[in-house]
Amino acid sequence: MHLAPGTWRLAAPLIAASVLGFILSPLWGAAALALAALVLWFHRDPNRNPPDHGIVSPADGRISVLRREGERVRVGVFMNVTDVHVNRTPIPGTVREVDHVPGANRPAFTKGSDRNERLHLHFDELRVTLIAGWFARRIHAHVGPGDRLERGDRIGHISFGSRADVLLPESVSLENVRVEKGDRVRAGETIIATR
Questions:
Q1: What is d(CA 193, CA 168) in angstroms, rounded to the nearest whole number?
Q2: In contact, 39 and 14? CB cutoff 8 Å
Q3: Which residue has the higher pLDDT, 37 or 51?
Q4: Residue 162 falls in the annotated catalytic set
Q5: Which of 24, 65, 106, 156 has the fewest Cβ atoms surrounding its Cβ within 10 A?
Q6: Are residues 22 and 75 in the same domain?
Q7: At what angle do helices 7-24 and 26-42 cross, to 10 degrees?
Q8: Could you say which of 64, 162, 171, 173 is catalytic?
Q9: What range does the domain containing 33 cover?
């Protein structure tokens, strides 16, 4: 099983605590080991097979935001605790800028989450925004300015709950969007819009 970078740093203390826990009490040891297993499972990073066309989802989850913002369209994906939290690039392109914005930590499925801590990844034609939820406190970028990526490549992950938004290119209208609110999508595979 592939894991997001840094996962072992989170799981190792729990594994060490389980060893000590088993010495003191089998119940405590089992509880710490179960938590370690949950951390590993949460940070799983399965391979994906991107299509050769279209704009794909940056995240696994449900479409929670679909709205026009000025001349552009925003599509947001809410990642439930059971979803894979590794994020992927929607189209081929070069990362122009990575911009971290501090903020609140409200639930990622609410309107108030627009003021949460977030990370903007600017590409030639679109922007992906990774938004921390109320429990998520860690956004990890796997790319930096100048990196050339293909559709579906990994761009980062968010630990423990979140949302990923795509501000689509100006050439993409609401009529080009292929998903609706509530639809389930898979990062790097589900086409959310065409041109």
A1: 8
A2: yes
A3: 51
A4: yes
A5: 24
A6: no
A7: 170
A8: 162
A9: 7-42
Non-local (6+) Cβ contacts of 13 within 8 A are none
Instruction: Enumerate the β-bridge partners of residue 98.
Output: 121
Report the CATH number at residue 141: 2.70.70
Residue 107 forms part of a structural domain: yes
* Distance of alpha carbon 164 from alpha carbon 139, whole angstroms: 11
Distance CA 58, CA 69 (A): 19
Q: What is the pLDDT of residues 116-135, one digit of tens each?
A: 788 999 999 999 999 987 65
Please report, as a single letter, which amino acid is at residue 149: L
Q: What's the CA gap between 39 and 35, in Å, rounded? A: 6
Regarding whether 157 and 187 lie in a shared domain, the answer is yes
| 2-6, 85-89, 114-118, 126-130: range with lowest mean pLDDT | 114-118
In single-letter form, the type of residue at position 170 comes to E
Enter the tokens of residue 115: 């003021």
- Structure token digits, residue 4: 């997001």
Ranking 74-78, 119-123, 160-164, 172-176 by mean pLDDT, the lowest is: 160-164
Confidence of residue 136 (pLDDT cuts 50, 70, 90): low
Sign of CA dihedral 131, 137, 143, 146: positive
Number of domains into which the chain is organized: 2
Rg (CA), the chain: 18
